[in-house]
């Protein structure tokens, strides 16, 4: 057994303080605020909020549209993942589907809304082609399409991952046992996927329920809970108590979701071996899924194509001649380039700090006998549960009077905390897979614990570190929901600036900025992927 | 009776199997023996109907089955790692295929298989609660209730520990006798093949090196490969065991 040494404790302390100050205390403080009325402690605020017709309506609307979106997304994601893993669809098409479905992840959700307006709205491409609007995009329809676009990548990646670990040889067993197709599907695909399907549903529901970017752009008169919260805090009449109450109410479905996820976990099982066996060709099945995949990817590309057309045309939708004027205008405007630099700074430092915290937390949790190391799992569970808007709002309450208010640091801290779960689990996963005897070997060879970490563990976890960096960077570039409460005029980010530009109807600028974000994210992602795969190739040699 | 005539298999420009000829009588146990990558698993898959041969024909009781699908052939296989459905318990795995059969099997008949494989105490256990040997027997039961015309076993002993190996060997022999079931086993272990089967097909680099009874192979190895790969290993084993026990135990 390894002894807990001083170094481990020295590393543990700041992390504990970080989560205490930037997660636990602000949330508790906000909860306390929701109970305060004047100088007394009461549940009066909750009673008032629940009696308010507007809040009730917004809550119900949110529930409704998120539920429908989650059903659609889950079905689509399942079908697309099935096409990737259980059909003999063309390999290039499989790659294209993967790229097409996950590409929207590189954009802020607020952009989705404007893209939808330009595609389905009165001046939209589809409207021009069809002669009249296909659907009214403001309100329910727009939210629904936006949420599906927003959550499809996440659900798709979840399903894909899970299907990867299904033992394909059971298809063969099922054939040998003379199963009908429906029974084969149930036992070899559906049953093993039930846990993931439920998980994807809950996750997409919560994401939609708590998203701010999409309703901010296409919500129109359709009230949802996220916009109500924004109105309460940053609207014309500020009602702090009501804001606190709404954000606590927003937590409820999130908490319920997490509880349900742990129940669903019981349906999961693992295959001992995962063997790949050649899939039988089945014309009808393969063709059906090829068509479905093509349709999905085309729809996504068509919707987002406006983003690339509008900024490069003279006077969309009347004059389609090519111009760089709009891009030059944005580049010339110091204000906008500074906002872009701000975003870069925040994303970069978020990624650096985030990777450090997530890696050290995972390291302490997995590879040391440190007492209290399970608190880190607890922290990751909470960050996974608390919606971005709620966390951002709790910072607004807690740091309001402090000197941290309006600094880059608070935005970075928020982003690090909000997106902590995934990188933490990534690091944990890799660390768990590593040989558990390395530290002992290191100690026997007279290395200190820290030396072993630097000389043995770090070089072996490098690909994961780059993936964590890329995850943090990308999300920091696109996040809107929490940071709207935290930015000041000095620390304005691209994603929040888009929200402002909306007021002046400067949609071309919005798209130019969105393209900047997309390109930056693509470069970072491709760079990190390149480093990761190169390292792996090197290992194989 | 199963007959293989001039079976060949090639992938793109690589020959995996060349001109395999083989006759297996009903109720016989035959091992396909050879080093890894020699093509023995490919041959097993061709018999099963999972892989299509590039050339040659297969006959079952005189009928040409070369173009028949895996399902129509009615052979069945027990996989090396058993491939039991992890979400079903032992009993549900055993009766899994019965639900697809027109002719229902009576409870008593199922019980017969269960008793024969001594699985009665384990029927309601989950798959991960079973030992390796128990999983193996569940997997065999699941295959046997389908009443296959030929039973194929892919490395049936490689996932089991030493002690259980010998008892499973006996079990496989008694299954073949009891159900008069033609059994084909893939293995890379000469000792296993020679002690388990009526006949052994030694394959090297895609061709038949020797086909005969264990006795014939030991007495008259046909070529250098059989001597090097098969006999030498057994001699070393014998030598080691003699050293442990002393010559007097021979």
TrEMBL record, chain A:
Q: Name one GO cellular component term.
A: plasma membrane
Topology of this chain in the membrane: Multi-pass membrane protein
**Keyword Transmembrane annotated:** yes
Report the subcellular localization. Answer: Cell membrane; Membrane
InterPro entries referenced in this protein's UniProt entry, alphabetically: MetI-like (IPR000515), MetI-like_sf (IPR035906)
Keyword terms, alphabetized: Membrane, Transmembrane, Transmembrane helix, Transport
User: Could you list the residue ranges that cross the membrane?
Assistant: 12-32, 63-84, 96-118, 138-159, 189-209, 244-267, 288-310, 344-366, 378-398, 404-426, 469-490, 510-531
Superkingdom of source: Bacteria
Record's protein name: ABC transporter permease subunit
UniProtKB/TrEMBL annotation, chain B:
A Pfam family in this protein? ABC_tran
Q: Does the keyword Mitochondrion apply?
A: no
EC number in record = 7.6.2.9
| TM spans (from-to) | none
- The chain positions of domain ABC transporter read 2-230
Annotated catalysed reactions: a quaternary ammonium(out) + ATP + H2O = a quaternary ammonium(in) + ADP + phosphate + H(+)
Keyword vocabulary terms for this entry: ATP-binding, Cell membrane, Ion transport, Iron, Iron transport, Membrane, Nucleotide-binding, Transport
CDD domains assigned to the protein according to its UniProt record, in alphabetical order: ABC_Carb_Solutes_like
GO terms, molecular function: ABC-type ferric iron transporter activity; ABC-type quaternary ammonium compound transporting activity; ATP binding; ATP hydrolysis activity
The organism sits in which domain of life?
Bacteria
> What SMART domains does the record point to?
AAA (SM00382)
An annotated GO cellular component of this protein is: membrane
State what protein this is by name.
Carnitine transport ATP-binding protein OpuCA
């Amino acid at each position: 057994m390894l002894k807990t040494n001083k170094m481990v404790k020295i590393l543990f302390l700041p992390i504990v303080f970080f989560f205490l100050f930037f997660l636990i205390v602000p949330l508790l403080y906000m909860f306390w605020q929701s109970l305060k009325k004047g100088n007394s402690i009461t549940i009066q605020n909750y009673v008032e909020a629940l009696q308010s017709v507007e809040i009730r309506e917004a809550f119900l609307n949110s529930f409704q549209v998120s539920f429908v979106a989650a059903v659609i997304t889950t079905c689509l994601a399942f079908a697309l993942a099935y096409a990737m893993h259980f059909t003999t669809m063309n390999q290039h098409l499989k790659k294209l589907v993967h790229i097409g479905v996950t590409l929207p992840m590189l954009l802020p959700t607020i952009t989705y809304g404007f893209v939808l307006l330009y595609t389905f709205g009165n001046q939209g491409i589809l409207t021009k082609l069809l002669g009249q609007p296909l659907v009214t995009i403001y309100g329910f329809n727009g939210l629904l399409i936006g949420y599906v676009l927003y959550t499809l990548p996440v659900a798709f990646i979840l399903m894909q991952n899970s299907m990867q670990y299904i033992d394909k040889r059971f298809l063969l067993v099922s054939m040998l046992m003379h199963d009908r197709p429906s029974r084969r599907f149930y036992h070899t695909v559906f049953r093993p996927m039930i846990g993931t399907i439920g998980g994807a549903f809950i996750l997409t529901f919560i994401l939609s329920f708590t998203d701010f970017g999409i309703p901010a752009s296409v919500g129109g008169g359709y009230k949802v809970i996220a916009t109500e919260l924004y109105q309460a805090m940053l609207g014309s009449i500020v009602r702090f108590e009501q804001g606190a109450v709404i954000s606590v109410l927003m937590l409820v479905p999130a908490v319920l979701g997490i509880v349900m996820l742990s129940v669903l976990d019981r349906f999961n099982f693992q295959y001992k071996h995962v063997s790949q066996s050649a899939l039988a060709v089945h014309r009808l099945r393969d063709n059906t899924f090829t068509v479905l995949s093509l349709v999905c990817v085309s729809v996504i590309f068509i919707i987002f194509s406006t983003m690339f057309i509008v900024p490069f045309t003279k006077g969309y939708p009347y004059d389609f001649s090519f111009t760089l004027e709009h891009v030059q205008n944005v580049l010339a405007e110091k204000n906008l380039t500074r906002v872009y630099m701000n975003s870069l700074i925040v994303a970069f430092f978020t990624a650096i700090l985030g990777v450090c915290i997530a890696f050290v937390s995972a390291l302490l949790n997995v590879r040391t006998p440190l007492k209290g190391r399970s608190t880190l799992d607890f922290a990751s569970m909470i960050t996974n549960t608390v919606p971005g808007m709620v966390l951002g709002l709790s910072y607004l309450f807690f740091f309001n009077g402090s000197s941290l208010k309006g600094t880059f640091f608070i935005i970075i801290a928020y982003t690090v905390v909000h997106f902590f779960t995934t990188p933490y689990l990534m690091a944990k996963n890799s660390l768990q897979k590593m040989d558990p005897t390395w530290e002992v070997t290191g100690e026997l060879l007279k290395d200190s614990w820290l030396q072993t970490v630097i000389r043995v563990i770090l070089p072996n976890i490098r690909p994961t570190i780059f993936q964590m960096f890329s995850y943090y960077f990308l999300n920091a570039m696109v996040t809107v929901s929490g940071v709207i409460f935290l930015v000041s005029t000095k620390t304005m980010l691209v994603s929040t600036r888009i929200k402002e530009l909306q007021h002046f109807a400067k949609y071309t600028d919005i798209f130019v900025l969105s393209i900047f974000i997309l390109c930056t994210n693509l470069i970072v992602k491709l760079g990190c992927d390149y480093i990761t795969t190169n390292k792996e190739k090197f290992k194989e040699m | 009776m199963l007959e293989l005539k001039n079976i060949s298999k090639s992938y793109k420009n690589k020959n995996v199997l060349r001109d395999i000829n083989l006759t297996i009588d009903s109720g016989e146990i035959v091992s396909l023996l050879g080093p890894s990558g020699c093509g023995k698993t490919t041959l097993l898959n061709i018999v099963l109907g999972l892989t299509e041969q590039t050339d040659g024909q297969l006959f079952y009781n005189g009928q040409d089955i070369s173009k028949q699908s895996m399902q129509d052939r009615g052979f069945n296989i027990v996989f090396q790692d058993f491939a039991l459905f992890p979400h079903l318990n032992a009993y549900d795995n055993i009766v899994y295929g019965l639900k697809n059969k027109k002719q229902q099997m009576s409870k008593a008949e199922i019980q017969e298989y269960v008793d024969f494989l001594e699985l009665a105490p384990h029927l309601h256990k989950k798959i991960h609660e079973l030992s390796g040997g128990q999983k193996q027997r569940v997997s065999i039961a699941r295959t046997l209730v389908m009443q296959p015309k030929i039973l194929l076993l892919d490395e049936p002993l490689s996932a089991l520990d030493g002690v259980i190996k010998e008892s499973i060997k006996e079990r496989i022999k008694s299954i073949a006798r009891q159900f008069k079931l033609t059994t084909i086993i893939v293995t890379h272990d000469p000792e296993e093949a020679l002690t388990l089967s009526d006949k052994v097909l030694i394959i090297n680099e895609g061709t038949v090196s020797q086909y005969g009874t264990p006795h014939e192979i030991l007495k008259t190895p046909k070529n250098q490969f059989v001597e090097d790969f098969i006999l030498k290993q057994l001699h070393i084993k014998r030598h080691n065991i003699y050293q442990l026990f002393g010559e007097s135990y021979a």
